[in-house]
Amino acid sequence: MHASQGRSAGLGLALASAFAFGGSGVAAKPLIEAGLDPLHVVWLRVAGAALVMLPVAWRHRALVRSRPVLLLGFGLLAVAGVQACYFAAISRIPVGVALLVEYLAPALVLGWVRFVQRRPVTRAAAVGVVLAVGGLACVVEVWSGLSFDAVGLLLALGAACCQVGYFVLSDPGSGGSAQDAEPPHPVGVIAYGLLVGAAVLTVVARPWGMDWSLLGGRTTMNGTSVPAWLLLVWIVLLATVIAYVTGVISVRLLSPAVAGVVACLEAVIATVLAWVLLGEHLAAPQLIGGSLVLIGAFIAQSSTPKAPSGPVASGPGGGFDEADNALSAERAAT
Hints:
Blueprint: H1 2-22, H2 24-33, H3 38-52, H4 54-59, H5 63-66, H6 68-90, H7 95-102, H8 105-116, H9 123-139, H10 150-170, H11 186-205, E1 218-221, E2 224-227, H12 228-253, H13 256-263, H14 265-278, H15 284-302, E3 313-315, E4 318-320, H16 322-331
Antiparallel strand pairs: 1-2, 3-4
């Protein structure tokens, strides 16, 4: 009975997390179109979430000494790098397309495992990569000479590469983290990753040059006037803090495979929200291609070889393995 209730609660939290993460780009794009630089929007999101998560960071302050490389990697790549590339990408291409390009990350991870680490991959993993790449070709409509902004697509691909970089760094088999110490608590890693990301983005984005008056004005979502500050609250609290917390709890209550399936709904949710709230319509071939990307990404992610040394980051009652680390890096962008 308790197991069934825990599973139901986990599914509910996983869906809530997917919905929250999926809406970040939809809330950010109107702010960018209103005149805010994409880097400034990223800084507002990360710095705001970091302030909210300060009590959590203080509670897990021992991580600064025990896992400095992991925290720096998460902050630099999974937070600052991924989000900066993603928000810059959605300023040039549709939200759904940018997120679907990012879902190539699991396929890129398998490429690293096979050709750099020279570890074998399964036939199912190879099929997943082929599906993801073929689906992406449909999403960007290669037969028409790329119907989307090439720079925007490269930025989205850069976000995927940042995810792979964090995966490589946090893989125990690569020497990126200590293998004999107790795995760190994932919420603590998130809190310090946001702090590191905020510090880096402060230097890069230079928020003191931002037009702060824009946040007191209004912007539009598909013709509807919306207060800019309300979208900022959406990005910081709903799409970052609540999304991360519910996501971490759901992974503890569900198996990694189930959590991975639900996480794939983020791209679907983002595409639907962008369609309804921003008027960004995708053609039938792009929707079919997006489905192939998600299916291929899930197969590739679930087929990633497990490191023999066990979990990378976990806490009491559950943890993140290699696939979940790639997934958590991917979620940092959305």
